[in-house]
Amino acid sequence: MVPGASADALITELKPIRPPPLDGRAGCETWSVQFSPDGEYFAWSLGHGIVKLLVWPLQDVEQNTPSVLSTTARKRERMLDCGHTVWSLAFGPCTSKAARQAKVTRESCDQSAATLLLATGLKNGDIKVWEVATGHLLFNLSGHQGVVRDMVFTPNGRLTLVSGSRDKTLRIWDLTTAGKNVHVLSGHTSWVYSCCVSPDCSMIASVCRGNPRVYLWSLRSHTFMRNLQGFSMFLVSCDFSPDGALLATAAFATVWEIAIFDPYSGDCLVTLRDCSYCDHEMMNTPIRAVCFSTEGLHLAFVTEDRAIRIWELGQERPVMETDVLHFSNGLCCTFHPQGGVVATGTRDGHVKFWRTPLLVPSLSHLSRMSLRYNISTQQVMALPIPNKIKNFLTYRNLQGAQEARCGVHSTCD
């Protein structure tokens, strides 16, 4: 994929029926987009309190797998009226690829075959949980006192939901008891913007408004662990790599920055910063979201001056970026679980699907992911192996800071 070749990368676009209000009031934004764990549904928060469940692949999206087409042909699109603006979406139960390969417990495997659910986080602080197959509302989770900004199901196949809110808390819900069993994690200094769960379900990471620190929590004991520090900007998004060995964070002040941490040691391994050669208006290009691809080698992120950028770990320039826009655009992004496609949601309620660069992971990377899912950085460093292999296994071969030069300025001195 050639940087800047947005015409080739864009697959299709979804547009809401209702246009944005002329007076600029909020309510029409696509704050969240999600693919189901099996990749057969796509959830679109298209503003005005409505979520649309679409069968994937869409009719005008190329798909070369006949079995997927025959399976999805029996599914139906659905419209869910949530009654309030939807800020976050989460499908569950879900199981990470690493957990499946590690042969998780019998209990988790049994629950992973349970009915597919969709949780919708609302402006009024409630969370509505829907049955995807029927579109029925199963129950309503109350407790948050502000917008439910982000949510994620734990990737072990269990019906455990983690939510972050503007009320400065995280809540851990056990949906097997219809939300009656809930743990509240307090300590953020302001609104929680983003939260994610490590693939082995040992940690929760979260970031909050106006705070340059990452919060790490123990999912097993429901207690605060530590902060990751060293930022000069305010954090807005975070995501674990598929093996849990890396934590990507997105931050901005007048420009944007992505930092990739080792969550076990707290070391910052890689830093990507906005292209200093780009003439951004007033030098204000907020970054909104960052996420890892399913193979763990790509990072996708959206900023308000470009629809999407995709970065390959260890490379000096983006493998894909769209043209500069002249208006606010990206708010969220997510990869399809089988790869090949990334979806982005925009401020005007649109969704765009982009073809991602093709990349076959090396055997060494697949071996590293399998190993790192099971052991921590400290355990790797204690192994009687050469330091070069230790650096590879702990991703320290990627260590360094670099400027994320755009395609136009990638050759500037």
What keywords describe this structure?
413 residues, mainly beta, 39% strand, globular, disordered N terminus
Mean pLDDT: 85
Q: Low-confidence parts, pLDDT < 50 over ≥5 residues? A: 1-5, 63-73, 104-113, 405-413
Overall strand count? 29
Tell me the radius of gyration. 20 Å
* Category by helix and strand content: mainly beta
Q: Name the overall outline.
A: globular
Strand content: 35-45%
**Main pleated-sheet profile:** 5 strands, mixed
> Which strand order spans the largest sheet, edge to edge or round the barrel?
18-19-20-21-29
Work out the oligomeric state of the chains in this entry.
single chain
Number of helices: 7
Explain this structure:
It is built from seven helices and 29 strands. It is mainly beta. Strands 18-19-20-21-29 form a five-stranded mixed β-sheet, with no helix packed on it. The radius of gyration is 20 Å and the shape is globular. The N terminus and C terminus are likely disordered.
Chart the SSEs and their pairings:
Layout: H1 6-9, E1 10-14, E2 33-35, E3 41-45, E4 50-55, H2 66-72, E5 78-81, E6 86-92, H3 97-101, H4 106-112, E7 117-122, E8 127-131, E9 137-141, E10 148-153, E11 160-165, E12 169-174, E13 181-186, E14 192-197, E15 203-208, E16 214-218, E17 223-228, E18 234-240, E19 247-252, E20 256-261, E21 268-273, E22 287-292, E23 298-303, E24 306-312, E25 320-321, E26 330-335, E27 341-346, E28 351-355, H5 363-374, H6 377-381, H7 387-393, E29 400-403
Parallel strand pairs: 21-29
Antiparallel strand pairs: 1-28, 2-3, 3-4, 4-5, 6-7, 7-8, 8-9, 10-11, 11-12, 12-13, 14-15, 15-16, 16-17, 18-19, 19-20, 20-21, 22-23, 23-24, 24-25, 26-27, 27-28
